[in-house]
Predict the structure.
Amino acid sequence: MDKQTFLTMSPSKRVQEVNKLLLDHDLKEISDLIGIPSSSFSKIMREGDYIYHKADKKYYPFVRSEEER
């Protein structure tokens, strides 16, 4: 996946593709493959309210609890 493709994907599609890559690569390797600094990669991946779960090595949608209000 090239940088332009990555940047133009919807957040949900981006998460699907990155989660597939996470089966064989870590976050740093993926950011290097795409050609984006890891800090920028992390920020872009949070778009659409997604969070990275370290134990699962996977991105998930962040769901806010109604009780927090």
